[in-house]
Amino acid sequence: METKERTEHPPQGSPPGREERLEHGDDLPPGHEAEHNYLNHEKGLMSWLTTIDHKRIAVMYAISLSVVFLVAGLLALAVRMELFTTGETIMGADMYNQTFSMHGIMMVFLFLVPATPAVLGNFVLPVQLGAKDVAFPRLNLATWYIYMIGAFLVIGALIVGEIDTGWTFYAPYSTSDAATTADGGAVMFMTMAIFVAGFANIFTGLNFIVTIHKMRAPGLTWNRLPLFVWGMYATSLVQVLATPVLGITVVLLFVEQLFSIGIFDPTLGGDPILFQHFFWFYSHPAVYIMILPGFGIMSELIGTFSRQRVFGYRAIALSSVAIALLGFLVWGHHMFVSGQSAVASIIFSLITYLIGIPSGIKIFNWVATMYRGSIWLQTPMLYAMSFLFLFTIGGLTGIMVGVLSVDVHLHDTYFVVAHFHYVMMGGMMIALLGGMHYWWPKMTGKMYHELTGKIGAALIFVGFNVTFFTQFILGSQGMPRRYYDYPVGYETLHQISTVGSWVLALGLFSILGNAIWSLWKGPKAPANPWAAATLEWTNTTSPPDPHNFHHTPLVTRGPYDYHLADEVFGEGGDGYSGDGAGDGSARVPEPPEPEPAAARS
Amino acid sequence: MNDGTIWLPEQASTLAPEIDALFYFVYWTSIVLFVGVVGAMLYFAYKYRRQHPGERPAPVKENKLLEISWIVIPTILVLIVFTWGFQSFVKMGTAPPNSYEITVTGEQWNWSFTYPNGTSITNELHVPVGRPVRLKMSSSDVIHSFFVPVFRTKQDVLPDRYTYLWFEATETGTFKAFCTEYCGTQHSAMDAKVVVHEQGDFQQWVKTGGGVADMPPAEYGKVLYERQGCNACHSLDGSDGTGPTWQGLYGTKNHPLSGGETVTVDANYLRESILQPGAKIAAGYGNVMPSNYNSLSERQVTSLIAFMKQQSDKTLDSGGAPLEGSAGAAQ
């Protein structure tokens, strides 16, 4: 294939400092010292707890969020285990209801919503912009403390309050003392705790918006922003605009409870459907807070591992913003059978379809990016392809539940459970895992074990589909969600689903093992192991220097212009990244291990 | 009769074929799109796999026509689906004017159905085949949702207003209805039997108050034991439940109460316990029995007590008297 052959250019002179670097055998940008990086330049617990370095804050978030994910994931396994047989398997009905509530609340509010912005956004976004930090570093640290306070309050309320309302808190079930194992007070406390955690999101979003507007390196125009930055920009808009509605809801709950003014509770003259409007007015945009960063990660992965300009750059960038804005106008599609007016349902259904289009555009563009690329099937790319598979199913079943009359049948069944797990876990979580593998060498300075990574990706893919595809069938056959017990006819599918959850868990634990192995004895990562062309790879060490860059980079091309990326391929360029060796390809790393032939098919 | 497929249960209402057709239209369109996307992805991943680490492929030019086509074609597809869904949704929301109206009340965790002549029954909805039925529904506590999969219809049941749902059954038989809005501990047990009768049988069923007009008390009590949901908490075989078993309960002397005193289980004690469940509570059990049983008629209370007495006289033989109400229900 002639398009893949690279043209040879003679090395263009010897930039300052290169000779010395070559002597040391290091491959570092000028002025960077080999053993001085953000992880080791200060030591001790206090240096972490008081840091204002965006990279260290990202690491602290990564640890906290991993713990939350582990706990919430184990709860999910308990839920699946209970459903293995009809009747009581391992716990009683009240315990089951509390378990799925804890799983949902922790996953949604403490993990999915903050995860990608807090970890990858914090770590990668400023570096991709060529900035030394975010616009407000102290505010950034404050968000971690706010998040931790919120998380402890939420988990405390879950345990002490025995909350069994599901993550949706529908009134009047959630506000009545008699109906639930919890009481109205515990639920009020819980919503307040979620709002506290939500403040961390508002501040993070605000920080990112200002950073993207004001701190781009010279030459980094809006049209040259990496698509991850565009994804984070759209996410931040939603975070800043939607989260306050959660606060309004909390205030209304308090007013109702303290002054007995009927707002949501029908016994006081309130309207329970109003609560659902408030809840989904926040929680539907929150779905986009969860998935938009995943879209951003996907563009980076597909571009880097196809070594091809991301097809339809502007369409992908602007469709994220379109989704962010339209996302505020579709909340009523959760309420087609709630008793809201039929006219409202019809309008919400129409807008829901309009928001499906930009998501579809992205999928087509990503696949088109692979066309005539040079596709390197490393672990992050396997996750990206996994995402395309799973998110396409998630999106298409979203069209299914958006059909007004079909949704009447499918609403509140396992079909919906499967749909949002395909979008949230098959979409967002898979993208996050791909992103974590992709940026892991940059964050830690160590490579992970490639084969283990690939096996993990395969286990997760298989386990996920076995767990959740069966739930589509359960749901369309009529199995309602949030059921402790079920008619015996559904038992086989439930058992397949539960077995799938074990495979999924095995895959996730293999990633944990790989991470520990990598930190302990993983090989040292080069500055740019993937031959990527964005600033965090081309212009920083792995792991980066505390200040990221010694000199503010000058950007002269788009983020995926590999045909112009001489600094990646070692032909002059910015004067420090190429090594000028005879074959001219030393910057492009060999795969860490021989490619297994099977991974290519 | 449509027996159902791997994806959908059998069809038993006039709406079901239309909903299913739309389901399968979206389903097959989705499969075509999915195979296209994933097929292209796998083909590219193989065809353009990296064979040398230094490969630098030439950039692919943007193609406006391609980009516009994958905006326009999906938009047309979803507008077709929207319009189709909209039409059937309007149909689902508009009950024919000659509909037979049944009042439905949801409460934690029972459904009760009241017919125009006052006949009322718990956890069993009896309807005629071939005639539109409109359910006028409300809740006495939290939000519930009434869902009959074979009818493809569902509607939330709210505590502060009436909501409506209609269907016209096309098959006789016994089907299942679920509560699909999470409502607490026994949410998953809040189901009901939907019995579709031939029109003549249904008229007879309603006229005889659910086929029980001429039943002897103990037999009627057995029917009530199931219809009123007593069986959810009180067993007949001695096994423990939320409430005491009825096996051998009647006639027990020195039956311990939670206050420490004892009582003899006779007809008057049982009558009080049905109508005012909180007055005397058996030791070891909570005060959890719903108080709505005080709306039972005199005949119903008497029949229930007669049935309980029978549980002490003999072990319930599994055959029992066939329920007249379910005649024609067997499929």
Features:
heterodimer, A: 601 residues, 0% strand, disordered C terminus, B: 331 residues, Immunoglobulin-like, Cytochrome Bc1 Complex, Chain D, domain 2, 3 domains, five-stranded mixed sheet, 32% helix, elongated
Overview of the molecule:
The complex is a heterodimer of chains A (601) and B (331). Chain A is an all-alpha fold and 601 residues long. Chain A has a domain at 526-601. Chain A contains 17 helices and no strands. Chain A has helices at 18-24, 45-49, 54-82, 93-128, 137-161, 184-214, 227-259, 272-306, 313-326, 342-370, 379-402, 404-410, 414-444, 450-476, 491-521, 535-538, 566-569. In chain A, helix 3 packs antiparallel against helix 4, helix 4 (93-128) packs parallel to helix 6 (184-214) and helix 9 (313-326) runs antiparallel to helix 10 (342-370). Chain A is globular, with a radius of gyration of 25 Å. Chain A starts with 17 loop residues before the first helix and ends in a 32-residue tail after the last helix. Chain B has helices spanning 16-47, 64-93, 199-207, 217-227, 267-275, 298-313; strands at residues 100-107, 110-114, 120-122, 124-128, 132-139, 144-148, 153-157, 163-168, 173-179, 192-197, 255-256, 262-263. Mean pLDDT of chain B is 86; it is low at 315-331. Chain B has 6 helices and 12 strands. Helix content of chain B is 32%, strand content 19%. In chain B, helix 1 (16-47) packs antiparallel against helix 2 and helix 4 (217-227) packs across helix 6 (298-313). The termini of chain B are close together. In chain B, 39% of the residues are buried. Chain B has a 5-stranded mixed beta sheet. A 5-stranded mixed beta sheet of chain B has the order 4-10-9-6-7. Chain B folds into 3 domains: 16-50 and 59-93; 100-207, Cupredoxins -  blue copper proteins (Immunoglobulin-like, Sandwich), CATH 2.60.40; 217-326, Cytochrome Bc1 Complex, Chain D, domain 2 (Orthogonal Bundle). Chain B is α+β, with helices and mostly antiparallel strands and 331 residues long. Chain B is elongated and about 95 Å long. At the A-B interface, helix 4, helix 8, helix 10, helix 11 and helix 12 of A face helix 1, helix 2, strand 7 and strand 9 of B.
